[in-house]
Amino acid sequence: MKKDKNAVVERLRAKIQPENRIFVQKNLEISEQIQTLLKDKGWSQKDLAIRLGKSESEVSKLLSGLHNLTLKSIVKLEVQLGHDIITTPLEATKKYSAVEYEYQPLDC
Amino acid sequence: MNTFATIVRLSDFQYEKVRYYSIRFEENEVNEFYDFLNRMEDLDEVTEDLSNLLVWIEQIGEKYGAIKNRFFRNESITADVQALPPGRKQMVAFELPVESLRLYCLVLNEHVVFLFNGGVKSTQNAKECPNVGHYIKQANLIVRKIDEHFRLGNITWNYDQTDIQIVKSLEIEI
């Protein structure tokens, strides 16, 4: 039977697995985090590429949100940026529950 | 031989932050992006990459916007784009790489993206690849033509540059 070429999106969307969605979402979140750190430091992607000993094109690929980042690559990025890029919920809970907040009464 | 194409708004890919378009050659049943999807659908080795690409297109459309130098690459595919007069910003084709899968596109701004065609890259230099080389040339050619139609006023921006307006029945000679 001849396939309906205009219905291809419907067919392909039906094949998308939850892991595809999570993979891309997390990938884009990591990219967003790196961009924020670059902005804070006043670095361009080129600056980051030089520090990583990679080409701009390779860094661009890493940050595209489509590349299968390895933990090793993420750690290398964290070392160069001097900041965590990913934190597990358990670590985040430990970190933020250890912060002491001071109550400041409103001036009346 | 020259052929004619029309601009197609992809109704399956309209999001809050990005409106996606493609072009359809008059002799073809579907637009170039759907042709790409139909051809890749039959290749088992890219099923996962294709799923990731579709999710990515959706996420960029809904949440991030099409940020050129962050999510799209243009280093390797624009060398044969015809130079424009100095002072005029050049429109260039971009590449979306998902492992070995390549999709070529035009990012007009953060809100408007044209998705063209592509394939599975099989050689180091994409331009020499029998699977995608043709689509790089094609993308560059279409981009040049779209640029021309912008200059002619056949394609214009809407008031806040979040979408484009196309002259009725516009046919692009390619």
Summarize this entry quickly:
The complex is a heterodimer of chains A (108) and B (174). Chain A is mainly α and 108 residues long. Chain A is 62% helix and 0% strand.
Annotation, overall tally of beta strands of chain B: 8
Shape of chain A: extended
> What fraction, in percent, of the residue positions of chain B are helical?
25-40%
Q: Based on Cα principal axes, name the global outline of chain B.
A: globular
Strand content of chain A: under 5%
* Cross-sheet strand order for the largest sheet of chain B: 3-4-5-2-1-8
Task: Summarize the structure in words.
The complex is a heterodimer of chains A (108) and B (174). Chain A is mainly alpha-helical and 108 residues long. Chain A is 62% helix and 0% strand. In chain A, α3 crosses α4. Chain B has a six-stranded mixed sheet with strand order 3-4-5-2-1-8. In chain B, strands 6-7 form a two-stranded antiparallel sheet. Chain B is globular, with a radius of gyration of 15 Å. Chains A and B meet through α1, α2 and α4 of A and α1, α2, α3 and β3 of B.
Fold blueprint:
The complex is a heterodimer of chains A (108) and B (174).
Chain A: H1 8-15, H2 18-41, H3 45-52, H4 56-62, H5 71-81, H6 89-97
Helix pairs in contact in A: 3-4
Chain B: E1 4-14, E2 19-25, H1 32-41, H2 47-64, H3 68-71, E3 93-98, E4 101-107, E5 112-120, H4 133-152, E6 155-157, E7 164-166, E8 172-173
Parallel strand pairs in B: 2-5
Antiparallel strand pairs in B: 1-2, 1-8, 3-4, 4-5, 6-7
